[in-house]
Amino acid sequence: MKNNYKNIVILSIFLIFLISTIAITVGSVSLSPFHVWKILLNKLFHKEIFEIEWKKTTEMIVWNLRVPRILLALISGAGLSLVGILMQALTKNSLASPYILGISSGASTGAVISIVIGGIMGFNFSPGIGAFLFGTLTAFLVFYLSGKGSYSSSKLVLTGVAISSFFSGITTFLVTTAKSESQLRGAMFWISGSLAGARWGQIAPLFLTLLISTILTYIKYRELNILVAGDELAETLGVNVSRLRLFIVIISTLLTGFIVASTGVIGFVGLVVPHISRGLIGSNHKRLIPCCLLLGAVFLAGTDTLTRVIFKTQEIPIGVITSIMGAPFFMSMLRKNSYKFGG
Amino acid sequence: MKKIILIYMLIFTIISAKEKIRAVSTSQFTTEILLSIGAEDQVIGTSFLDDEILPELKEKYNRIPVLSKTAPTKELFYSLNPNFLTGWKSIATKKYLGTLEELNENGVDVYFAKSQETQNIEDIYEDILYFGEKFSVEKNAQMLVEKLKQDIETVKKLKAENKTLKIFAYDSQENAPYVVGGNGIANKMIEISGGKNIFNDSNFSFGVGNWERVLEKNPDVIVVVDYGDTSYEEKVKFLKERSPISELTAVQENKFIRVPLSYLSPGVRVAEGIKLMAEKFCE
User: Model-level pTM?
Assistant: First the structure.
Protein backbone atom coordinates (compact mmCIF):
# COMPACT_ATOMS: atom_id res chain seq x y z
CA MET A 1 0.00 0.00 0.00
CA LYS A 2 2.80 2.46 0.94
CA ASN A 3 4.64 1.98 -2.35
CA ASN A 4 1.39 2.07 -4.18
CA TYR A 5 0.65 5.45 -2.62
CA LYS A 6 3.97 6.95 -3.69
CA ASN A 7 3.55 5.70 -7.24
CA ILE A 8 0.04 7.07 -7.47
CA VAL A 9 1.13 10.51 -6.28
CA ILE A 10 4.04 10.66 -8.73
CA LEU A 11 1.99 9.31 -11.60
CA SER A 12 -0.89 11.72 -10.89
CA ILE A 13 1.38 14.76 -10.82
CA PHE A 14 2.95 13.66 -14.09
CA LEU A 15 -0.49 13.12 -15.61
CA ILE A 16 -1.67 16.55 -14.47
CA PHE A 17 1.23 18.17 -16.33
CA LEU A 18 0.69 16.03 -19.39
CA ILE A 19 -3.09 16.61 -19.51
CA SER A 20 -2.66 20.33 -18.93
CA THR A 21 -0.22 20.64 -21.81
CA ILE A 22 -2.51 18.66 -24.10
CA ALA A 23 -5.53 20.66 -22.95
CA ILE A 24 -3.86 23.96 -23.76
CA THR A 25 -2.48 22.90 -27.14
CA VAL A 26 -5.52 21.06 -28.47
CA GLY A 27 -8.91 22.47 -29.32
CA SER A 28 -10.77 23.87 -32.26
CA VAL A 29 -7.51 25.63 -33.06
CA SER A 30 -4.33 23.56 -32.67
CA LEU A 31 -1.29 25.37 -31.33
CA SER A 32 2.29 24.28 -30.96
CA PRO A 33 3.21 23.16 -27.41
CA PHE A 34 6.33 25.36 -27.58
CA HIS A 35 4.28 28.46 -28.25
CA VAL A 36 1.95 27.53 -25.45
CA TRP A 37 4.69 27.25 -22.85
CA LYS A 38 6.40 30.40 -24.12
CA ILE A 39 3.13 32.31 -23.86
CA LEU A 40 2.55 30.94 -20.37
CA LEU A 41 6.01 31.85 -19.13
CA ASN A 42 5.75 35.32 -20.66
CA LYS A 43 2.40 35.83 -18.98
CA LEU A 44 3.51 34.46 -15.62
CA PHE A 45 6.53 36.75 -15.40
CA HIS A 46 4.82 39.69 -17.07
CA LYS A 47 7.65 40.33 -19.46
CA GLU A 48 8.86 39.17 -22.82
CA ILE A 49 11.22 36.36 -21.94
CA PHE A 50 10.62 34.95 -25.39
CA GLU A 51 10.20 36.95 -28.52
CA ILE A 52 6.57 37.17 -29.56
CA GLU A 53 6.30 35.07 -32.70
CA TRP A 54 2.60 34.34 -32.57
CA LYS A 55 -0.64 36.20 -33.23
CA LYS A 56 -2.22 38.26 -30.49
CA THR A 57 -5.37 36.15 -30.86
CA THR A 58 -3.40 32.96 -30.14
CA GLU A 59 -2.36 34.48 -26.87
CA MET A 60 -5.99 35.29 -26.08
CA ILE A 61 -7.07 31.73 -26.82
CA VAL A 62 -4.43 30.35 -24.48
CA TRP A 63 -4.71 32.86 -21.68
CA ASN A 64 -8.41 33.79 -21.69
CA LEU A 65 -9.94 30.44 -22.50
CA ARG A 66 -7.80 27.36 -22.16
CA VAL A 67 -5.75 28.11 -19.06
CA PRO A 68 -8.74 29.09 -16.88
CA ARG A 69 -10.62 26.08 -18.16
CA ILE A 70 -7.98 23.52 -17.29
CA LEU A 71 -7.44 25.14 -13.89
CA LEU A 72 -11.18 25.05 -13.24
CA ALA A 73 -11.26 21.38 -14.22
CA LEU A 74 -8.35 20.50 -11.89
CA ILE A 75 -9.74 22.46 -8.95
CA SER A 76 -13.33 21.26 -9.37
CA GLY A 77 -12.27 17.64 -9.75
CA ALA A 78 -10.09 17.81 -6.67
CA GLY A 79 -12.71 19.71 -4.69
CA LEU A 80 -15.62 17.44 -5.53
CA SER A 81 -13.57 14.36 -4.64
CA LEU A 82 -12.59 15.86 -1.29
CA VAL A 83 -16.21 16.64 -0.50
CA GLY A 84 -17.08 13.11 -1.59
CA ILE A 85 -14.76 11.69 1.08
CA LEU A 86 -16.19 14.00 3.71
CA MET A 87 -19.78 13.15 2.88
CA GLN A 88 -19.07 9.43 2.91
CA ALA A 89 -17.43 9.77 6.28
CA LEU A 90 -20.30 11.87 7.62
CA THR A 91 -23.11 9.58 6.49
CA LYS A 92 -21.13 6.31 6.61
CA ASN A 93 -22.94 5.59 3.42
CA SER A 94 -20.97 4.48 0.40
CA LEU A 95 -23.51 6.08 -1.92
CA ALA A 96 -22.95 9.55 -0.51
CA SER A 97 -21.81 12.20 -2.99
CA PRO A 98 -21.13 15.92 -2.61
CA TYR A 99 -24.73 16.52 -3.55
CA ILE A 100 -26.29 14.33 -0.89
CA LEU A 101 -27.31 17.34 1.18
CA GLY A 102 -29.36 18.65 -1.70
CA ILE A 103 -26.87 21.32 -2.65
CA SER A 104 -27.15 20.55 -6.36
CA SER A 105 -30.90 20.90 -6.57
CA GLY A 106 -30.82 24.04 -4.43
CA ALA A 107 -28.09 25.53 -6.61
CA SER A 108 -29.95 24.71 -9.81
CA THR A 109 -33.05 26.37 -8.41
CA GLY A 110 -31.09 29.48 -7.46
CA ALA A 111 -29.46 29.74 -10.88
CA VAL A 112 -32.69 29.14 -12.74
CA ILE A 113 -34.53 31.72 -10.61
CA SER A 114 -31.99 34.33 -11.59
CA ILE A 115 -32.24 33.33 -15.27
CA VAL A 116 -35.99 32.91 -15.61
CA ILE A 117 -37.43 35.36 -13.09
CA GLY A 118 -34.45 37.68 -13.07
CA GLY A 119 -34.09 37.84 -9.32
CA ILE A 120 -36.40 37.95 -6.34
CA MET A 121 -38.39 40.98 -5.22
CA GLY A 122 -36.50 43.36 -7.45
CA PHE A 123 -33.18 42.04 -6.21
CA ASN A 124 -31.14 40.85 -9.19
CA PHE A 125 -28.23 38.46 -8.98
CA SER A 126 -26.17 36.48 -11.47
CA PRO A 127 -26.81 32.74 -11.92
CA GLY A 128 -23.52 31.95 -10.17
CA ILE A 129 -24.43 33.91 -7.08
CA GLY A 130 -27.94 32.48 -7.11
CA ALA A 131 -26.49 28.97 -7.28
CA PHE A 132 -24.13 29.63 -4.40
CA LEU A 133 -26.73 31.20 -2.11
CA PHE A 134 -29.47 28.66 -2.71
CA GLY A 135 -27.08 25.70 -2.73
CA THR A 136 -25.48 26.54 0.59
CA LEU A 137 -28.84 27.45 2.15
CA THR A 138 -30.31 24.12 1.08
CA ALA A 139 -27.40 22.16 2.50
CA PHE A 140 -27.60 23.89 5.88
CA LEU A 141 -31.35 23.46 5.91
CA VAL A 142 -31.02 19.72 5.32
CA PHE A 143 -28.39 19.41 8.02
CA TYR A 144 -30.45 21.44 10.47
CA LEU A 145 -33.68 19.53 9.82
CA SER A 146 -32.03 16.12 10.05
CA GLY A 147 -30.30 17.01 13.30
CA LYS A 148 -33.54 17.74 15.16
CA GLY A 149 -34.25 15.04 17.70
CA SER A 150 -31.83 12.17 17.62
CA TYR A 151 -29.30 12.29 14.81
CA SER A 152 -28.88 9.41 12.39
CA SER A 153 -27.14 9.33 9.07
CA SER A 154 -30.03 7.67 7.29
CA LYS A 155 -32.24 10.53 8.49
CA LEU A 156 -29.75 12.94 6.96
CA VAL A 157 -29.76 11.11 3.64
CA LEU A 158 -33.56 10.93 3.55
CA THR A 159 -33.94 14.60 4.45
CA GLY A 160 -31.54 15.36 1.60
CA VAL A 161 -33.68 13.31 -0.77
CA ALA A 162 -36.87 15.07 0.32
CA ILE A 163 -35.48 18.61 0.09
CA SER A 164 -33.81 17.76 -3.25
CA SER A 165 -37.04 16.61 -4.76
CA PHE A 166 -38.78 19.73 -3.48
CA PHE A 167 -36.26 21.99 -5.18
CA SER A 168 -36.13 19.85 -8.33
CA GLY A 169 -39.86 20.35 -8.60
CA ILE A 170 -39.48 24.11 -8.37
CA THR A 171 -36.67 24.05 -10.95
CA THR A 172 -38.69 21.96 -13.38
CA PHE A 173 -41.65 24.28 -12.92
CA LEU A 174 -39.51 27.34 -13.66
CA VAL A 175 -37.91 25.68 -16.70
CA THR A 176 -41.26 24.67 -18.19
CA THR A 177 -42.63 28.19 -17.76
CA ALA A 178 -39.50 29.82 -19.19
CA LYS A 179 -40.49 32.48 -21.67
CA SER A 180 -37.76 32.05 -24.25
CA GLU A 181 -35.42 29.56 -25.81
CA SER A 182 -32.36 31.39 -24.56
CA GLN A 183 -33.57 31.21 -20.95
CA LEU A 184 -34.12 27.52 -21.39
CA ARG A 185 -30.59 27.02 -22.70
CA GLY A 186 -29.14 29.04 -19.85
CA ALA A 187 -31.04 26.95 -17.34
CA MET A 188 -29.93 23.70 -18.94
CA PHE A 189 -26.31 24.79 -18.55
CA TRP A 190 -26.77 24.81 -14.78
CA ILE A 191 -28.61 21.57 -14.65
CA SER A 192 -26.18 19.60 -16.80
CA GLY A 193 -22.89 21.18 -15.71
CA SER A 194 -20.08 22.44 -17.93
CA LEU A 195 -16.58 23.86 -17.69
CA ALA A 196 -17.11 26.15 -20.66
CA GLY A 197 -17.79 29.15 -18.50
CA ALA A 198 -14.31 29.22 -16.97
CA ARG A 199 -12.97 32.75 -16.46
CA TRP A 200 -9.98 34.08 -14.53
CA GLY A 201 -12.22 35.83 -12.04
CA GLN A 202 -13.48 32.53 -10.61
CA ILE A 203 -10.15 30.78 -10.26
CA ALA A 204 -8.57 32.60 -7.31
CA PRO A 205 -11.50 32.37 -4.86
CA LEU A 206 -12.05 28.74 -5.83
CA PHE A 207 -8.42 27.82 -5.36
CA LEU A 208 -8.28 29.56 -1.98
CA THR A 209 -11.40 27.76 -0.79
CA LEU A 210 -9.96 24.44 -1.90
CA LEU A 211 -6.60 25.12 -0.24
CA ILE A 212 -8.13 26.11 3.09
CA SER A 213 -10.57 23.18 3.03
CA THR A 214 -7.77 20.75 2.24
CA ILE A 215 -5.53 21.99 5.06
CA LEU A 216 -8.34 21.96 7.63
CA THR A 217 -9.50 18.51 6.58
CA TYR A 218 -6.01 17.07 6.54
CA ILE A 219 -5.38 18.26 10.09
CA LYS A 220 -8.41 16.23 11.17
CA TYR A 221 -7.53 13.00 9.35
CA ARG A 222 -7.39 10.95 12.56
CA GLU A 223 -10.82 12.06 13.68
CA LEU A 224 -12.21 11.20 10.26
CA ASN A 225 -10.70 7.72 10.48
CA ILE A 226 -12.40 7.19 13.85
CA LEU A 227 -15.71 8.67 12.67
CA VAL A 228 -16.00 6.09 9.87
CA ALA A 229 -15.74 3.35 12.47
CA GLY A 230 -18.90 4.60 14.19
CA ASP A 231 -20.23 7.50 16.26
CA GLU A 232 -20.29 5.71 19.60
CA LEU A 233 -16.74 4.48 19.25
CA ALA A 234 -15.65 7.96 18.22
CA GLU A 235 -17.31 9.50 21.31
CA THR A 236 -15.60 6.94 23.54
CA LEU A 237 -12.25 7.79 22.00
CA GLY A 238 -12.77 11.46 22.81
CA VAL A 239 -13.88 12.86 19.45
CA ASN A 240 -16.51 15.58 19.70
CA VAL A 241 -18.75 14.04 17.06
CA SER A 242 -21.39 16.74 16.75
CA ARG A 243 -18.76 19.43 16.38
CA LEU A 244 -16.90 17.36 13.78
CA ARG A 245 -20.17 16.87 11.88
CA LEU A 246 -20.81 20.60 11.81
CA PHE A 247 -17.24 21.20 10.66
CA ILE A 248 -17.65 18.69 7.82
CA VAL A 249 -20.93 20.22 6.70
CA ILE A 250 -19.61 23.79 6.71
CA ILE A 251 -16.45 22.93 4.77
CA SER A 252 -18.25 20.71 2.27
CA THR A 253 -21.07 23.11 1.68
CA LEU A 254 -18.88 26.13 1.06
CA LEU A 255 -16.51 24.24 -1.20
CA THR A 256 -19.30 22.60 -3.20
CA GLY A 257 -21.17 25.89 -3.33
CA PHE A 258 -18.19 27.63 -4.90
CA ILE A 259 -17.67 24.82 -7.39
CA VAL A 260 -21.33 24.62 -8.38
CA ALA A 261 -21.44 28.38 -8.83
CA SER A 262 -18.76 28.15 -11.54
CA THR A 263 -19.52 24.85 -13.22
CA GLY A 264 -23.13 23.90 -12.58
CA VAL A 265 -23.77 20.37 -11.39
CA ILE A 266 -21.14 17.83 -12.45
CA GLY A 267 -22.13 14.41 -11.18
CA PHE A 268 -20.32 11.18 -10.48
CA VAL A 269 -16.82 12.57 -9.81
CA GLY A 270 -17.38 13.09 -6.11
CA LEU A 271 -19.06 9.72 -5.74
CA VAL A 272 -16.59 7.54 -7.60
CA VAL A 273 -13.15 9.03 -7.04
CA PRO A 274 -13.17 8.41 -3.26
CA HIS A 275 -14.06 4.74 -3.83
CA ILE A 276 -11.41 4.34 -6.51
CA SER A 277 -8.84 5.89 -4.17
CA ARG A 278 -9.85 3.59 -1.34
CA GLY A 279 -9.54 0.64 -3.66
CA LEU A 280 -6.02 1.68 -4.53
CA ILE A 281 -4.55 2.78 -1.20
CA GLY A 282 -6.94 1.81 1.57
CA SER A 283 -9.08 3.83 3.92
CA ASN A 284 -6.63 5.82 6.02
CA HIS A 285 -7.56 9.46 5.50
CA LYS A 286 -3.97 10.54 5.87
CA ARG A 287 -3.20 9.02 2.49
CA LEU A 288 -6.72 9.04 1.14
CA ILE A 289 -7.11 12.84 1.12
CA PRO A 290 -4.05 13.69 -1.03
CA CYS A 291 -4.64 10.72 -3.30
CA CYS A 292 -8.26 11.71 -3.81
CA LEU A 293 -7.40 15.31 -4.60
CA LEU A 294 -4.89 14.25 -7.23
CA LEU A 295 -7.04 11.55 -8.80
CA GLY A 296 -10.09 13.81 -8.84
CA ALA A 297 -8.10 16.51 -10.63
CA VAL A 298 -6.75 14.01 -13.15
CA PHE A 299 -10.16 12.46 -13.70
CA LEU A 300 -12.07 15.66 -14.41
CA ALA A 301 -9.31 17.41 -16.35
CA GLY A 302 -8.72 14.21 -18.34
CA THR A 303 -12.36 13.69 -19.29
CA ASP A 304 -12.82 17.35 -20.16
CA THR A 305 -9.72 17.40 -22.34
CA LEU A 306 -10.70 14.16 -24.04
CA THR A 307 -14.13 15.60 -24.77
CA ARG A 308 -12.60 18.72 -26.25
CA VAL A 309 -10.28 16.64 -28.43
CA ILE A 310 -13.09 14.46 -29.76
CA PHE A 311 -15.72 17.18 -30.20
CA LYS A 312 -13.64 20.06 -31.40
CA THR A 313 -16.31 22.56 -32.24
CA GLN A 314 -19.14 21.54 -29.95
CA GLU A 315 -19.63 21.88 -26.22
CA ILE A 316 -20.71 18.54 -24.74
CA PRO A 317 -21.87 18.70 -21.10
CA ILE A 318 -19.02 17.25 -19.08
CA GLY A 319 -21.33 15.39 -16.69
CA VAL A 320 -22.35 13.12 -19.54
CA ILE A 321 -18.76 12.12 -20.22
CA THR A 322 -17.73 11.70 -16.57
CA SER A 323 -20.51 9.14 -16.19
CA ILE A 324 -19.67 7.26 -19.37
CA MET A 325 -15.95 7.18 -18.54
CA GLY A 326 -16.16 6.62 -14.80
CA ALA A 327 -18.90 4.03 -14.50
CA PRO A 328 -17.18 1.05 -16.20
CA PHE A 329 -13.98 1.64 -14.22
CA PHE A 330 -15.93 1.85 -11.01
CA MET A 331 -17.88 -1.32 -11.71
CA SER A 332 -14.80 -3.35 -12.58
CA MET A 333 -13.35 -2.27 -9.25
CA LEU A 334 -16.47 -3.31 -7.36
CA ARG A 335 -16.33 -6.75 -8.95
CA LYS A 336 -12.86 -7.31 -7.57
CA ASN A 337 -14.04 -8.45 -4.15
CA SER A 338 -11.03 -6.96 -2.43
CA TYR A 339 -12.84 -3.66 -1.91
CA LYS A 340 -14.86 -2.88 1.20
CA PHE A 341 -16.19 0.53 2.14
CA GLY A 342 -14.52 1.86 5.28
CA GLY A 343 -12.54 -1.33 5.77
CA MET B 1 -78.89 4.79 -55.47
CA LYS B 2 -75.34 4.88 -56.76
CA LYS B 3 -76.09 8.03 -58.68
CA ILE B 4 -77.51 9.73 -55.66
CA ILE B 5 -74.43 8.87 -53.67
CA LEU B 6 -72.21 10.15 -56.47
CA ILE B 7 -74.13 13.41 -56.66
CA TYR B 8 -73.90 13.78 -52.92
CA MET B 9 -70.17 13.16 -53.03
CA LEU B 10 -69.80 15.67 -55.82
CA ILE B 11 -71.74 18.32 -53.94
CA PHE B 12 -69.77 17.53 -50.81
CA THR B 13 -66.42 17.96 -52.55
CA ILE B 14 -67.53 21.23 -54.09
CA ILE B 15 -68.66 22.52 -50.69
CA SER B 16 -65.50 21.37 -48.94
CA ALA B 17 -63.32 22.89 -51.66
CA LYS B 18 -65.03 26.20 -51.06
CA GLU B 19 -64.71 25.86 -47.32
CA LYS B 20 -63.17 28.98 -45.86
CA ILE B 21 -59.69 28.59 -44.46
CA ARG B 22 -59.36 29.06 -40.74
CA ALA B 23 -55.64 29.39 -40.24
CA VAL B 24 -53.48 29.66 -37.14
CA SER B 25 -49.96 31.06 -37.57
CA THR B 26 -47.41 30.36 -34.86
CA SER B 27 -44.43 32.43 -35.93
CA GLN B 28 -43.90 36.06 -36.70
CA PHE B 29 -42.53 35.52 -40.18
CA THR B 30 -45.44 33.39 -41.40
CA THR B 31 -47.89 35.82 -39.78
CA GLU B 32 -46.25 38.70 -41.65
CA ILE B 33 -46.34 36.82 -44.95
CA LEU B 34 -50.05 36.05 -44.54
CA LEU B 35 -50.88 39.65 -43.64
CA SER B 36 -48.74 40.99 -46.50
CA ILE B 37 -50.62 38.95 -49.11
CA GLY B 38 -54.00 40.02 -47.72
CA ALA B 39 -55.04 36.71 -46.18
CA GLU B 40 -55.88 38.33 -42.83
CA ASP B 41 -59.58 37.46 -43.00
CA GLN B 42 -58.71 33.79 -43.07
CA VAL B 43 -56.32 33.91 -40.12
CA ILE B 44 -58.10 33.25 -36.82
CA GLY B 45 -55.18 33.40 -34.43
CA THR B 46 -51.46 34.16 -34.12
CA SER B 47 -48.70 33.57 -31.59
CA PHE B 48 -44.91 33.67 -31.08
CA LEU B 49 -44.15 37.31 -31.78
CA ASP B 50 -40.38 37.98 -31.59
CA ASP B 51 -40.56 41.75 -31.73
CA GLU B 52 -42.72 44.55 -33.15
CA ILE B 53 -44.85 43.56 -36.11
CA LEU B 54 -44.11 45.52 -39.30
CA PRO B 55 -45.72 48.98 -38.91
CA GLU B 56 -47.66 48.71 -42.17
CA LEU B 57 -49.22 45.44 -40.97
CA LYS B 58 -49.98 46.61 -37.45
CA GLU B 59 -53.61 47.50 -38.05
CA LYS B 60 -54.37 44.12 -39.67
CA TYR B 61 -52.47 42.30 -36.96
CA ASN B 62 -54.40 43.94 -34.15
CA ARG B 63 -57.70 42.65 -35.53
CA ILE B 64 -56.62 39.02 -35.15
CA PRO B 65 -56.66 37.41 -31.69
CA VAL B 66 -53.24 36.70 -30.20
CA LEU B 67 -53.51 33.20 -28.74
CA SER B 68 -50.39 33.28 -26.61
CA LYS B 69 -46.91 34.73 -26.33
CA THR B 70 -45.43 31.34 -27.14
CA ALA B 71 -47.18 28.12 -28.08
CA PRO B 72 -50.97 28.13 -27.65
CA THR B 73 -52.42 25.26 -25.66
CA LYS B 74 -53.98 22.37 -27.54
CA GLU B 75 -57.43 23.07 -26.12
CA LEU B 76 -57.41 26.73 -27.08
CA PHE B 77 -56.14 25.80 -30.53
CA TYR B 78 -58.88 23.27 -31.24
CA SER B 79 -61.58 25.44 -29.65
CA LEU B 80 -61.11 27.84 -32.55
CA ASN B 81 -61.93 25.03 -34.97
CA PRO B 82 -58.92 25.67 -37.24
CA ASN B 83 -58.26 23.78 -40.45
CA PHE B 84 -54.83 25.11 -41.33
CA LEU B 85 -51.66 25.55 -39.30
CA THR B 86 -48.35 27.17 -40.14
CA GLY B 87 -45.44 28.60 -38.14
CA TRP B 88 -42.33 27.25 -36.44
CA LYS B 89 -41.80 23.57 -37.06
CA SER B 90 -41.45 22.83 -33.36
CA ILE B 91 -45.15 23.53 -32.85
CA ALA B 92 -46.09 20.15 -34.35
CA THR B 93 -44.64 18.08 -31.53
CA LYS B 94 -46.19 16.16 -28.66
CA LYS B 95 -45.13 18.91 -26.30
CA TYR B 96 -47.25 21.55 -28.05
CA LEU B 97 -50.05 20.90 -30.51
CA GLY B 98 -49.35 17.24 -31.20
CA THR B 99 -47.64 15.43 -34.06
CA LEU B 100 -48.34 16.03 -37.73
CA GLU B 101 -50.39 12.80 -37.94
CA GLU B 102 -52.52 13.85 -35.02
CA LEU B 103 -53.14 17.30 -36.47
CA ASN B 104 -54.06 15.84 -39.85
CA GLU B 105 -56.41 13.32 -38.23
CA ASN B 106 -58.19 16.21 -36.57
CA GLY B 107 -58.71 17.90 -39.89
CA VAL B 108 -55.89 20.41 -39.63
CA ASP B 109 -53.80 20.89 -42.73
CA VAL B 110 -50.21 21.77 -41.82
CA TYR B 111 -47.67 23.64 -43.92
CA PHE B 112 -44.23 24.58 -42.67
CA ALA B 113 -42.26 27.10 -44.63
CA LYS B 114 -39.55 25.45 -46.70
CA SER B 115 -37.33 28.43 -46.10
CA GLN B 116 -37.09 27.58 -42.38
CA GLU B 117 -34.56 24.94 -43.19
CA THR B 118 -32.76 25.97 -46.32
CA GLN B 119 -30.40 28.62 -47.52
CA ASN B 120 -32.30 29.58 -50.65
CA ILE B 121 -33.93 32.95 -50.92
CA GLU B 122 -36.00 31.33 -53.71
CA ASP B 123 -37.66 29.11 -51.12
CA ILE B 124 -39.15 32.20 -49.51
CA TYR B 125 -40.76 33.07 -52.85
CA GLU B 126 -42.09 29.54 -53.13
CA ASP B 127 -43.55 29.74 -49.64
CA ILE B 128 -45.26 33.02 -50.43
CA LEU B 129 -46.68 31.65 -53.69
CA TYR B 130 -47.89 28.54 -51.89
CA PHE B 131 -49.70 30.67 -49.34
CA GLY B 132 -51.10 32.76 -52.17
CA GLU B 133 -52.60 29.69 -53.81
CA LYS B 134 -53.83 28.21 -50.56
CA PHE B 135 -55.61 31.38 -49.47
CA SER B 136 -56.80 32.26 -53.00
CA VAL B 137 -54.82 35.51 -53.14
CA GLU B 138 -52.44 34.48 -55.93
CA LYS B 139 -52.20 37.94 -57.43
CA ASN B 140 -51.10 39.58 -54.20
CA ALA B 141 -48.58 36.81 -53.59
CA GLN B 142 -47.06 37.27 -57.04
CA MET B 143 -46.85 41.01 -56.55
CA LEU B 144 -45.14 40.58 -53.19
CA VAL B 145 -42.61 38.15 -54.66
CA GLU B 146 -41.84 40.55 -57.52
CA LYS B 147 -41.33 43.37 -55.04
CA LEU B 148 -39.04 41.26 -52.85
CA LYS B 149 -36.99 40.22 -55.89
CA GLN B 150 -36.54 43.83 -56.92
CA ASP B 151 -35.62 44.93 -53.42
CA ILE B 152 -33.02 42.21 -53.12
CA GLU B 153 -31.52 43.12 -56.49
CA THR B 154 -31.31 46.71 -55.27
CA VAL B 155 -29.62 45.85 -52.00
CA LYS B 156 -27.20 43.49 -53.71
CA LYS B 157 -25.74 46.59 -55.36
CA LEU B 158 -25.03 48.08 -51.96
CA LYS B 159 -22.42 45.45 -51.31
CA ALA B 160 -18.94 46.86 -51.00
CA GLU B 161 -16.75 46.16 -54.01
CA ASN B 162 -14.38 43.17 -53.86
CA LYS B 163 -14.16 43.23 -50.09
CA THR B 164 -15.52 40.47 -47.90
CA LEU B 165 -15.79 41.15 -44.19
CA LYS B 166 -15.45 38.40 -41.61
CA ILE B 167 -18.64 38.38 -39.57
CA PHE B 168 -19.37 36.94 -36.14
CA ALA B 169 -23.14 36.83 -35.62
CA TYR B 170 -23.78 36.61 -31.89
CA ASP B 171 -27.19 35.58 -30.66
CA SER B 172 -26.88 35.03 -26.91
CA GLN B 173 -25.30 33.14 -23.98
CA GLU B 174 -22.06 33.65 -22.13
CA ASN B 175 -20.40 30.31 -21.43
CA ALA B 176 -20.40 29.27 -25.05
CA PRO B 177 -21.77 31.67 -27.64
CA TYR B 178 -25.06 30.86 -29.36
CA VAL B 179 -24.45 31.93 -32.94
CA VAL B 180 -25.79 32.11 -36.47
CA GLY B 181 -24.50 28.97 -38.15
CA GLY B 182 -23.90 28.09 -41.77
CA ASN B 183 -27.14 26.38 -42.58
CA GLY B 184 -29.97 28.86 -42.82
CA ILE B 185 -31.37 31.99 -44.33
CA ALA B 186 -29.53 34.24 -41.88
CA ASN B 187 -26.18 32.96 -43.15
CA LYS B 188 -27.27 33.54 -46.75
CA MET B 189 -28.29 37.09 -45.90
CA ILE B 190 -24.88 37.78 -44.40
CA GLU B 191 -23.28 36.50 -47.61
CA ILE B 192 -25.46 38.66 -49.85
CA SER B 193 -24.63 41.71 -47.73
CA GLY B 194 -20.95 41.13 -48.42
CA GLY B 195 -19.93 39.27 -45.31
CA LYS B 196 -18.51 35.85 -44.53
CA ASN B 197 -19.90 34.17 -41.43
CA ILE B 198 -17.06 32.70 -39.37
CA PHE B 199 -19.32 29.79 -38.39
CA ASN B 200 -20.42 29.09 -41.96
CA ASP B 201 -19.09 25.52 -41.91
CA SER B 202 -21.53 24.42 -39.19
CA ASN B 203 -24.66 22.47 -40.07
CA PHE B 204 -27.19 24.44 -38.00
CA SER B 205 -29.03 27.66 -38.73
CA PHE B 206 -28.66 28.82 -35.12
CA GLY B 207 -26.62 26.85 -32.60
CA VAL B 208 -23.82 26.67 -30.06
CA GLY B 209 -20.44 27.80 -31.34
CA ASN B 210 -17.31 28.39 -29.33
CA TRP B 211 -15.23 31.38 -28.28
CA GLU B 212 -11.98 29.89 -29.56
CA ARG B 213 -13.14 30.04 -33.13
CA VAL B 214 -14.12 33.69 -32.71
CA LEU B 215 -10.67 34.56 -31.38
CA GLU B 216 -8.92 32.54 -34.06
CA LYS B 217 -10.88 34.09 -36.95
CA ASN B 218 -10.70 37.61 -35.52
CA PRO B 219 -13.88 38.97 -37.17
CA ASP B 220 -14.12 42.47 -38.66
CA VAL B 221 -17.70 43.08 -37.61
CA ILE B 222 -20.01 41.61 -34.96
CA VAL B 223 -23.68 41.25 -35.75
CA VAL B 224 -25.71 41.19 -32.54
CA VAL B 225 -29.09 39.50 -32.92
CA ASP B 226 -31.61 41.46 -30.89
CA TYR B 227 -34.72 39.90 -29.34
CA GLY B 228 -36.08 38.68 -26.04
CA ASP B 229 -35.17 39.61 -22.50
CA THR B 230 -31.50 40.45 -22.86
CA SER B 231 -31.29 43.83 -24.51
CA TYR B 232 -28.85 44.72 -27.27
CA GLU B 233 -27.05 47.07 -24.88
CA GLU B 234 -26.63 44.30 -22.29
CA LYS B 235 -25.20 41.94 -24.90
CA VAL B 236 -22.70 44.52 -26.13
CA LYS B 237 -21.75 45.33 -22.55
CA PHE B 238 -21.06 41.66 -21.90
CA LEU B 239 -18.96 41.30 -25.07
CA LYS B 240 -16.94 44.38 -24.18
CA GLU B 241 -16.44 43.79 -20.48
CA ARG B 242 -16.76 40.17 -19.47
CA SER B 243 -16.43 38.00 -22.54
CA PRO B 244 -13.31 36.09 -23.60
CA ILE B 245 -13.24 38.14 -26.80
CA SER B 246 -13.16 41.55 -25.12
CA GLU B 247 -9.65 42.22 -26.40
CA LEU B 248 -10.45 41.71 -30.08
CA THR B 249 -10.08 44.78 -32.27
CA ALA B 250 -13.66 44.60 -33.54
CA VAL B 251 -14.96 44.63 -29.96
CA GLN B 252 -12.67 47.40 -28.79
CA GLU B 253 -13.56 49.57 -31.80
CA ASN B 254 -17.29 48.99 -31.31
CA LYS B 255 -17.89 47.30 -34.65
CA PHE B 256 -21.32 46.08 -33.57
CA ILE B 257 -24.42 45.94 -35.74
CA ARG B 258 -27.83 45.51 -34.14
CA VAL B 259 -30.10 43.26 -36.22
CA PRO B 260 -33.52 42.38 -34.80
CA LEU B 261 -34.23 38.65 -35.01
CA SER B 262 -37.33 39.17 -37.16
CA TYR B 263 -35.09 40.51 -39.94
CA LEU B 264 -33.11 37.27 -39.98
CA SER B 265 -36.18 35.07 -40.31
CA PRO B 266 -37.17 33.82 -43.76
CA GLY B 267 -40.05 36.20 -44.37
CA VAL B 268 -40.98 39.48 -45.97
CA ARG B 269 -38.20 41.40 -44.22
CA VAL B 270 -35.32 39.63 -45.93
CA ALA B 271 -34.50 42.52 -48.24
CA GLU B 272 -34.65 45.00 -45.37
CA GLY B 273 -32.41 42.79 -43.27
CA ILE B 274 -29.83 42.52 -46.05
CA LYS B 275 -29.99 46.28 -46.54
CA LEU B 276 -29.46 46.87 -42.83
CA MET B 277 -26.28 44.79 -42.83
CA ALA B 278 -24.95 45.79 -46.26
CA GLU B 279 -25.11 49.49 -45.41
CA LYS B 280 -23.22 48.94 -42.18
CA PHE B 281 -20.67 46.66 -43.80
CA CYS B 282 -19.88 49.43 -46.27
CA GLU B 283 -19.07 51.97 -43.59
Answer: 0.84
